[in-house]
Design goal:
It contains 14 helices and 16 strands. It is an alpha+beta fold and 476 residues long. It folds into two domains: 97 residues, OB fold (Dihydrolipoamide Acetyltransferase, E2P) (Beta Barrel), CATH 2.40.50.140; 307 residues, BirA Bifunctional Protein, domain 2 (2-Layer Sandwich), CATH 3.30.930.10. The strands form three sheets. The protein has an eight-stranded mixed sheet. Helix 4 crosses helix 14. It binds 4-amino-1,4-dioxobutan-2-aminium adenosine-5'-monophosphate and magnesium ion (MG). Magnesium ion (MG) binds next to strand 15.
């Protein structure tokens, strides 16, 4: 019999019809009730097994996460919690699971444990919800930009320039690592490498996106990004996805407006289209936090937080104001911060969290950072001390977006590159964009996993990407 998808079945409720559903067993109660899920939606369908029609041998194999096909009549459900159920005529085991050997068990399992079983964790309720939402955010990214006339541009993953300086890079090479060819002065001879020079995995598609913006006007990249920093935190991955729009004729204010509108759209999209998954994740967090002291709990339930972000303006302050707020804060005066704050130093995560979670209690955009702590390509402000850079800071996550207006003035850009030891010869094409047909432009990068983390309420970034890459870990 042709298979019916469970989401379709639950929507159409074809009572009286005979159907076949296929999926993975979420639960099997009293050797009688299967909660079956095939990934088409959040909800399971209940299948009622008939002892008389189902051989003992089959019943034994209906283990946790076994894959089964159930054929039977759709009836109105007697039990609470569902409108319809299937009275199984036949249960066919497509792939059994031996509970003695299957690594997952139908009980509470820690996320750390499940990370090691990443080939099975997507079958759990939490992770299937997380990865459905991850998909939804990716789709919403493309929809948002397409609907507004942006072109999706694929920027290279292997790059020949390491000039951007956004982070430590991973080397890409085909040279024999035991015995690489050497130059006369004993260094590795990259002329003999695959690309004839040293190459790395990209840390950002921005510089190439600027090429696109100088031709197509509004573009965005959305691809994998690699950073070899040894950051073992709940917000860092060595391989993550980044969305980088770039707009010609836009300044830093247009950039902030775009960033705020874009993030609000992504969140609204998930709120509207994935309410069941969100509701489940919210209840999960509420249960988890039940035993925590109030101060350690979320100030609002998950969906309320998301709605709050969508409905309220982000706070916009300058870096100089941010420093003043932090210096005037109670934790600063009581010496509670680990890192010092004075004008000219970068804000640490603890300072960003203070601004977002304590001072303003909403997302904050900090703009006009000191030039010395930001990248060479950011546009110099008239004060000669700050650049037109902005970071969007979120509760619980910290920085989700980093962006800037780009320096479009050739002389100024060259001056900054010289000051920051960025070799001109490596970025001649980038300078060409200022020599020929340049214009004011701006853009930003949104950390895809960080926004998915915020929307799903997951506390570790490793739990919102199917196969996380972090220092010491590249399984699967
Ligand atoms: O602030 P970043 O380094 O900005 C850039 O790379 C610019 N080229 C973007 C642009 O203007 N087009 O990174 C942008 C965002 C951060 O705000 C953060 O959300 C995310 O990327 N990010 C990471 N996410 C996960 N793991 C990491 N190691 C990350 N590093 C940055
Ligand atoms: Mg940044």
């Amino acid at each position: 019999m042709k298979r019916t998808e469970i989401a379709t079945l639950l929507q159409n409720k074809p009572v009286g019809e005979k159907v076949t559903v296929k999926g993975w067993v979420r639960a099997f109660r009293s050797n009688r009730f299967i909660a079956l899920n095939d990934g088409t939606g959040f909800n399971n369908v209940q299948c009622v097994v008939d002892f008389e029609k189902t051989p003992e041998e089959v019943i034994k194999q209906i283990g946790f996460h076994a894959c089964v096909a159930v054929t039977g009549e759709v009836v109105e459900s007697q039990g609470a919690g569902q409108d319809i159920e299937i009275l199984a005529d036949t249960v066919e085991i497509l792939g059994g699971t031996d509970l003695e050997k299957y690594p997952l068990q139908p009980k509470k399992m820690s996320h750390e444990f499940l990370r090691e079983k990443a080939h099975f964790r997507m079958r759990t309720q939490t992770f299937s919800s997380v990865f459905r939402i991850r998909h939804a955010v990716a789709f919403a990214v493309n929809k948002y930009f397409n609907d507004r006339g942006f072109y999706y541009m694929h920027t290279p993953i292997i790059t020949g320039s390491d000039a951007e300086g956004a982070g430590e890079m991973f080397r890409v090479t085909t040279l024999n690592d035991a015995k690489p060819p050497l130059t006369e002065d004993g260094k590795v001879d990259y002329k003999q490498d695959f690309f004839g020079k040293p190459t790395n995995m990209t840390v950002s598609g921005q510089l190439q996106a600027e090429i696109g913006a100088m031709a197509l006007g509004k573009v965005y990249t959305f691809g994998p990004t690699f950073r070899a920093e040894n950051s073992n935190t709940s917000r860092h991955l060595a391989e993550f996805w980044m969305i980088e729009p770039e707009i010609a004729f836009g300044d830093i204010n247009d950039d902030m407006d775009l960033a705020e509108d874009f993030i609000k759209y992504l969140i609204s999209y998930v709120l509207e289209n994935y309410p069941d998954d969100l509701q489940f994740l919210e209840e999960r967090i509420t249960k988890l936090e039940r035993n925590l002291p109030t101060a350690d709990r979320r100030p609002m339930p998950l969906t309320e937080t998301l709605r709050f972000v969508v409905d309220n303006d982000f706070e916009r302050i300058t870096y100089t104001e941010a420093v003043r707020h932090i210096q005037n804060s109670k934790p600063y005066k009581k010496g509670k911060f680990e890192f010092p704050v004075e004008w000219g130093t970068d804000l640490a995560a603890e300072h960003e969290r203070y601004l977002v979670e304590k001072k303003f209690k909403k997302p904050v955009i900090v703009v006009d950072y000191p030039k010395d702590i930001k990248a060479f390509y950011m546009r110099m402000n008239d004060d000669g001390k700050t650049v037109a850079a902005m970071d969007v800071l979120f509760p619980g996550i910290g920085e989700v977006i980093g962006g800037s207006q780009r320096e479009e003035r050739l002389d100024m850009l060259k001056k900054r590159m010289a000051e920051m030891d960025v070799p001109e010869h490596e970025l001649d094409w980038y300078l060409d964009l200022r020599r020929f047909g340049g214009c004011p432009h701006a853009g930003f990068g949104l950390g895809f996993e960080r926004i998915v983390q915020f929307i799903t309420g997951m506390s570790n970034i490793r739990d919102v990407i199917p196969f996380p890459r972090t220092p010491g870990n590249a399984e699967f």
